[in-house]
Each structure stands twice: as structure tokens, then as C-alpha cells.
Amino acid sequence: MFDFVMSEEEIRIRDEVRSFVRNEVSSEYLQMLDRDEVDFPIEVYRKLAEKNLLGVRFPKEYGGRGSTWVAECAAVEEIGVLGSAIGCVYAMPSIVGEAIYMFGTEEQKKKYLVPMLKGKLVSAEALTEPRGGGGSDFFGTTTTARKEGEYYIL
Questions:
Q1: Is the confidence at residue 30, as pLDDT, over 70?
Q2: Could you please report the per-residue DSSP string of the chain?
Q3: pTM of the model
Q4: What superfamily does domain 3-123 belong to in CATH?
């Protein structure tokens, strides 16, 4: 991302993430990921959380830094150097967190968003289900929910 469009704070966050990429994730670890010797890079996820680098655009009251989308995008760009596995893990609290932040109750934000940004809760999303020609038509996705006891089966 170009420095001339970024504020000092956004540059500082980008540089923090860049430093994390260079100093906290070894090439040996990345090779282990490539060889499928790591099921989920939880160690990296927790280190990012310890450094308050997850969901930097969310308000501080929920564990973010109260920064901007520009800072978030710059951080994602830097993390992307580590490959898609870690990039997806990094982006998930932001993607899932956005739905909780925008549409969740205060109770849900405290129950899910805060622990996500602290690295104590791992989030995920499902884009498609088997149907027709498959693919990843995010806006065309349909879902059914069936109640079984106290739970819903999606």
C-alpha cells in the first residue's frame, strides 16, 4: 500500500504487521504448513492477538485498535506475504467480526467479538453448500436451518 495515502497511524500499524511477518513466523514453520504438518496455525493466531494485531479497525472497547479500513487492508496485505493459510486465519476475525459488530447485540459482541480479537475464540465462515453447479456465489448462497433440541443444524 502506498504511504502517501496513509496516515501516520496506518503506516505504524502496517509496519508493526510487517515486523511481525519478518520476525515472528519462521520459514521452517511456513514449510511445515506447506507440508500439511500444521492443522491450524493457532500459534500464529495467538501471537497476533497478543500483539493486538487482529481486527485493528474495531473499537478499542471490543479489543481492536479503533483504527481504519485502510489500516486493516494494509495489515492484510502484509500478512498475505505468509501465504493463504495464515492470510485466511488473519482475515477471519475481521470478516466474521464485521457481522457481529454491525448486527449483533452488545451481549454477542462481548461474548464473541472480544474473545476473537484476544485470540481466545477462533471463527470461521462457510460460503457455499453443495448445490447445482457449485462454485462460490456468495450472494446466491442458500441455507436451511433445522432445530434439533436446543440447537440448530445448518
A1: yes
A2: --GGGS-HHHHHHHHHHHHHHHHHS-HHHHHHHHTT--SS-HHHHHHHHHTT-SSTTS-GGGTS----HHHHHHHHHHHGGG-HHHHHHHHHHHHHHHHHHHHS-HHHIIIIIHHHHTTSS--------S-TT----GGG-----EEETTEEE-
A3: 0.80
A4: Acyl-CoA dehydrogenase/oxidase, N-terminal domain (1.10.540.10)
